[in-house]
Design goal:
alpha/beta, five-stranded mixed beta barrel, 688 residues
Length: 688
């Protein structure tokens, strides 16, 4: 049977016996001050008290809030265990059961589960507050209206009465209390020594800015002190964690969000930081510029790196009159100057990223040279250097023959006119490398097809810069590495890469439906095309579904490729038809359907001209009908915006192209719009 928290508390007088055991002889009596046994404490400012809300005894060190908590918190910290961790908390329960001899579990199981040694004690911490005193409230403190002198004091930091009221700051006429030795005393507000109060739920923090004893924390303290937490918005951009209440008020007065804890060396709960990290984009420390503040910021910045906590160092000398953010504003600095310091901090944090981004920034004074088209159809650019082109089609459609026509166009000699099957291809006068990677054909079949390509390009032997490779015998996981390294070698060997063809891009992946692998592959090929200023032609051996490529690989290709050509078989003429599914510079509706077929007399495939306008229109209409049927099968009617967004998402096209498709579908009676300004589009009910 597992131990529970309630079992431990019921056996230990609500945790009091546990505290007695681990605190040792220093702790004598509940409510009586004693020195902290966990570090060289010089002033008795520790108490054990009964917390009415949680019904357990707790330990509180007013000199350092880090040592405050219930018995489980104290034991956990002594042994390096986290109370928030379920497994660690159970170890804490077992440890208490074992050390106090409660016999709530079998001893053997306890020893087996807890191979712990008491060598992880609390380490001494700097409190940073030497004039901090504790008191009981003898009688209700007397409030007063803020005087002009008092408002002038706050006003030098930019803090007005509205902000003071918003954060509940009060002016006190008189405060009567009992100190930790039991001595009664009374504090009176004067012009020379004003008294202000930061009230909490069951306590008040007294602030006397011009007195030797500046701070006094009085009342029942049962929770971590966080000033300004209740005033934070649900969401925000910057949250400053600063050293004191005055700093919070000063920042808020300048339009920032801020909180503070009891001191700069106070423990910051991870749970709170986790919440703030979700609510705010930046959590930024802005402590005093003295040594204590600097050390505290450095420590916390390293400790809470997981929450993105950063430190902003103010340009102040660290003296008593010039060390915190309220001094920063009092000395005449503005909110804009603080924001400039914040931006400089971001510049340092993002230096590496911004160095990369500077190289990517468009320089309007030196515009990039537009690349010359590498492949066009009817003067419409299909592909240019730095881009991907996709050629797709089912088996037997003729895409291998069409691809051969494109490669022969890249190989042709200057001045030669050859049949490139209706597609214009830029030749390669500089002799840059033309690389073919085939992942499907046998060595014999690939050699046969290459012979046809060379014959079409009027070569008996291939030029040395044409490098074809059959990768069938190489495992899928190794193919991409071969492509990466060989491209790099040939780029330098031949002074550049004119064209790369990957015939069977799907064979570089385990599955075309692997989304993560597909995204990575296409991004890598797109990166290589940009680096080598080359055009990468990817052959996808699958027939598209209408205007959309199949699988995650097809979807990613549709997003990134500058041009997509589909090769289909015309059963009536036995010719192969090439149609554009996507062109980046223009509309695929403007690209005619071209066709090619086998010529017995010529002994090769030849260009057979364009399809008639009527045939082209019928083919385009059928593609758009299929698209409309698919879109309206999911929703019977759509607004113009909904339809436009659906087309953009389905085909990975820009808004302009989606609008063209809607107009084409409407003009050709594929869709219709109802009556009225708010009417929606529907599929035409008449049969196509």
């Amino acid at each position: 049977m597992a131990l529970t928290k309630d079992e431990i508390l019921s056996k230990t007088n609500r945790g009091l016996d546990v505290l007695r055991h681990y605190l040792g002889s220093n702790f004598q009596k509940v409510g009586k001050a004693f020195k902290n046994p966990f570090y060289p404490d010089t002033k008795a400012s520790c108490y054990v008290h009964f917390d009415k809300r949680s019904q357990v005894f707790k330990f509180k060190d007013f000199g350092s809030a880090e040592y405050s908590g219930d018995c489980f918190f104290i034991v956990g910290n002594m042994f390096g265990l986290d109370c928030a961790d379920k497994e660690d908390f159970y170890k804490i329960l077992e440890l208490i059961n074992q050390d106090l001899g409660l016999f709530l579990l079998d001893n053997s199981s306890q020893l087996q589960a807890l191979p712990l040694k008491k060598d992880n004690r609390f380490k001494p911490k700097e409190t940073g507050i030497e004039d901090f005193e504790v008191a009981e409230i003898k009688e209700p403190y007397l409030l007063k209206e803020f005087s002009k002198i008092e408002l002038d004091y706050w006003g030098q930091y930019g803090i007005n009465k509205s902000v003071l009221n918003q954060y509940g700051v009060q002016a006190l006429e008189r405060f009567s209390g009992i100190n930790k030795e039991g001595k009664e005393y009374q504090l009176l507000n004067t012009e020379q020594e004003p008294i202000f109060g930061y009230p909490g739920r069951k306590h008040i923090k007294i602030y006397r800015p011009k007195s030797k004893l500046r701070f006094l924390y009085a009342g029942e303290i049962s929770e971590q002190y966080v000033f300004g937490l209740d005033q934070l918005p649900v969401r925000g951009d910057i949250l400053f964690i600063t050293g004191g209440e005055k700093d919070v008020l000063s920042l808020v007065s300048k339009g920032f969000h801020a909180i503070c804890f009891n001191s700069e060396t106070a423990n910051i709960p991870k749970k709170l930081l986790r919440t703030m990290n979700y609510r705010f984009k930046h959590i930024t420390l802005i402590y005093d510029t003295d040594e204590t503040g600097k050390k505290a910021m450095d420590k916390l910045e390293k400790e809470f790196v997981q929450f993105g906590v950063n430190a902003l160092h103010l340009p102040l000398n660290g003296s008593k009159e010039s060390k915190d953010v309220s001094d920063f504003f009092r000395l005449g600095h503005s909110a804009e100057e603080l924001m400039m310091l914040f931006c400089e901090m971001l510049d340092t944090l993002y230096d590496e990223t911004m160095s990369v981004m500077r190289a990517c920034e468009i320089d309007f004074d030196h515009p990039p040279k537009a690349p010359e088209p590498l492949i066009t159809i009817n003067n419409v650019t299909i592909g240019a250097p730095g881009n991907l082109i996709c050629i797709t089609g089912s088996e037997g459609s003729g895409k291998t023959n069409y691809l051969g026509g494109i490669i022969s166009g890249a190989l042709r000699k200057p001045g030669d006119t050859i049949d490139t099957l209706g597609t214009w291809v830029q030749h390669n006068p500089e002799g840059k490398s033309v690389i073919l990677y085939d992942t499907e054909q046998s060595e014999h079949q690939l050699h046969k097809n290459l012979s046809y390509i060379l014959h079409r390009a009027n070569y008996k032997k291939p030029p040395n810069w044409f490098r074809p490779f059959g990768l069938v015998g190489i495992s899928r996981k190794d193919r991409m590495q071969c492509i990466l390294e060989s491209m790099d070698k040939f780029f330098y060997e031949y002074g550049g890469i004119h064209m790369v063809v990957i015939d069977g891009i799907a064979d570089l992946l385990g599955s075309v439906n692997d989304e993560e692998a597909s995204v990575h592959l296409i991004e890598e090929l797109y990166r290589l095309a940009a680096i080598y200023k080359s055009c990468v032609i990817c052959v996808l051996h699958t027939s598209p579904s209408g205007m959309k490529l199949r699988g995650h690989l097809g979807s990613e290709m549709q997003r990134k490729a500058s041009g997509i050509l589909s090769v289909e078989k015309d059963d009536k003429t036995n010719a192969s038809v090439v149609k554009a599914l996507k062109v980046r510079d223009g509309s695929p509706l403007d690209v005619p359907l071209i066709q090619f077929g086998w010529d017995t007399q010529a002994g090769k495939h030849v260009y057979q001209g364009e399809k008639t306008k009527e045939e082209t229109s019928q083919s385009r209409n059928q593609d758009l009908k299929d698209l409309a049927i698919d879109l309206f099968s999911k929703k019977e009617s759509r607004t113009y915006t909904e339809l436009m967004n659906a087309i953009m998402e389905s085909l990975s096209v820009k808004e302009r192209m989606a609008r063209n498709y809607i107009k084409h579908m409407k003009d050709n009676g594929i869709i219709e719009k109802g009556q009225g300004s708010t009417a929606e589009f529907r599929l035409v009910s008449a049969p196509f």
